[in-house]
Amino acid sequence: MQIADRMNFIQNSVFANLRKDKEQYEQQHHQQVLDFTLGSPNIPPAPNVIQTLSNQAQIARNYRYAVDPLNELIDTISEWYFNRYQVRLTADEICLLQGSQEALVNLPLLYCNPGDGILVQNPYYPAYVDAPHIAQADILFMPLKEEHDYLIDFDAISPIQRQKAKMMIVCYPNNPTGATAPDWFIEKLIRFAKENDILVIYDNAYSDLIFDGSKGKSFLSFDGAKEVGIELNSFSKSYGMAGARLGVMVGNETVIAQYRKLKSNLDYGVFLPVQYAGIEALQTGSKIVEQTRQTYIERRQLLQQEFSKAGWAIELTKATMFIWAQIPDEYEDSYVFTKDLLFKTGVLVTPGLAFGQEGKRYVRLALVTENETICQAAKRFEQTQFFHSLTTSD
Ligand SMILES: Cc1ncc(COP(=O)(O)O)c(C=O)c1O
What we know:
By secondary structure, the protein is α/β, with parallel strands linked by helices. The chain is 42% helix and 14% strand. It has two domains: 5-44 and 287-392, Aspartate Aminotransferase, domain 1 (Alpha-Beta Complex); 64-284, Aspartate Aminotransferase, domain 2, CATH 3.40.640.10. The termini are far apart.
């Protein structure tokens, strides 16, 4: 059987490869690896959300296909967007998803013929490059530089790229860099999209995880946004529902209608108990969102304090559950550093190269570990003198 050409571009997830390295270390050293790689939140949903899911799962009629979403959930999403982001949405501007990943991967199929372009930030969340590959579209990278606060440099997008691009995928608060976008940037993004007739896919998975005191906004709260794009939002990070798949696409009515048409051929909706849990999460969840944010604040501070004592001075990112840290000068690239760190200390981080070429000199640490794990990692750095030996060899 000959696989299709497009499959040659789809890589095994970097996390699968890291898992192999992890197993090798554990077999050799008989010691558990302290793992800071995967961004799967370890903060559970609120007890009332779990209870709702459990109660609804006892009801036999909830096992039918859920082609049409619950009206009550659509109304609740509309209220949530108004109260949380001051954005008014009609039912035609809302599409329920099995997590936002689903739409990220499928949206290019709506607007891209083979050979059309998709503007993608680099570094990127891996689905942003898998999606164009599936649609056989060309990826047009937009490098994000630390010296520009990891914001897209619109002036660097060439006339040819502008003409070729049908869509652009934009994510702030950004995974993996942890950067946020100021208002002027979003205004510029909307102008750029309008002038060049490019659809904006705005990935807003982390709007509740900002740590400088500011409140994350919706892309749609800016004038003209609904004309040029849609926003994806997620229940995974704010409400701890990553495995109970639930997300939402909101914004441009035409895009939503087209996506619904595609989706009607792909799946039969979100499991009803998960929809009920989503209603419960949105109606009662503001306290849990605040607690989640506080938990990350504590972990970030602890990590910075303990790692710096052990010789790894880390600058905190502004947002998200990730730290985007530069690798020491002594290392050629982030893959080499990651392997050395793992096999010398038993601590695993994600090499920035897994998120594109712009991640060559960075690694990403996901703060989805308990405080205890952070302290243990710092202890291993101390015991092995991993970072101290680098700095004293200068
Ligand atoms: C930037 C970004 N977008 C989308 C997703 C997918 O989220 P969901 O669980 O809603 O599919 C993630 C998950 O880690 C993410 O980091």
